[in-house]
Amino acid sequence: MIPARTVIIGLGQTGLSCVRHCLTRGIRPLVMDTRAQPPGAEQLPAGLECYFGGLNAEVLCGAELIIASPGVPLATPELRRAAEAGVEIIGDVELFLRECTAPVIAITGSNGKSTVTTLVGEMAAEAGLAVGVGGNIGTPALELLERSLALAVLELSSFQLETTPGLRALAATVLNISEDHLDRYDSLAHYRDTKLGIYQGAGLCVYNREDADTRPPAGCRAVSFGLNEQDYGRVEQGGERWLAVHGEPVLPVRELRIVGAHNQLNALAAMALADEAGIPRAAQLAVLRRFAGLAHRCQFVAEKQGVRWINDSKATNVGATLAAIDGIADGLSGRLWLIAGGQGKGQDFSPLVPLLNSRIAGMACLGEDQEQLLRLGSNTHAVAGMAEAVAWCATQATPGDWVLLAPACASLDMYPNYLARGDHFTALVEAL
Fold first, then answer.
1. Which residue among 41, 153, 227, 329 is the one 20 to 30 A from 175 at the CA level?
2. Is 95-290 CATH 3.40.1190.10?
3. Cβ contacts of residue 301 below 8 Å, gap of 6+?
4. Active site residue 113
């Protein structure tokens, strides 16, 4: 039951789904947003009580339930006062779980979670299951309640996990941990521990044995994935590499359309989760053979004058940029030019230095944290924006070279989101 005095903080797509959910259950929530003109405000029904342009602590302390947007930290003073007053604070995913009767596969990680979530969803659909895919990946979780489901596959951010205490997944995974969102968390350990909360109550914990930070607590039922022959891994057979399950070869790596070791790990994680959901191996392999990857994730854009242009706008942290560079390494014969920059979110950019000294011919740096990136090496170049970055790379690159957009930063200093950033890059490349 949703109480009468419910407050929804944050509009946008997720906030609107919360409003609709409450209204269909006979509750008219109060809506707050720190923005004076939040997106989606025009879609609210007439007469709904709203507070825009800030948070009203007095109203929040008088609420029975607060449904907070993932973008609003629980450490916000007004939310802390409400929590101290005994008000329950949850997120939309928790609201979803309180009504969802289907088993849930839960996926998080610094990088790769959208790919793995999509893979598991497509595997379930290939097997004929009524599957809903949502959460952080685009479809708000509450919208999945509109149809009868046999399985729910949820991508969950660390922000969402903060307000989802009732998660008890059939299977859950933390794919990897690298520095991200350190503008919100006290330390990498704090961020990691928030991610590990996904394992709470899970029937099976699926972890990355290449990354010790993803290991679940002792005593959990667990299985791992990695690049050796253990559990879900890789083996050599007939002179080539295969994806394998407990040492048994199941798919030659060459049959994957997604490239790179990081995507082999993604495929193995998806198989482990799919196995726990009872999805037949044949359905899993059919999807792995045809899945070409997601837009803005190491996506081939075009070849212009012999130069290949790759869009990985989704690489919003350093770990994702390193993975993107590793992912294209097998196919690269010429030089690599990198476009990076934006909002660094307090990250340490130093892991890029060895690559600037070896694999990266030059890096075009843009955005809010441009100066930090420029200091990483002598082969960095300042640009005013994406158009200048593309133009500079086009003058530097020669046939056989690749240009990679993998910014290592969030996009919000220049774009509404990483999608708009990637679309702009793609349009500029196509116009060359």
1. 329
2. yes
3. 309, 310, 311, 425, 426, 429, 430
4. yes
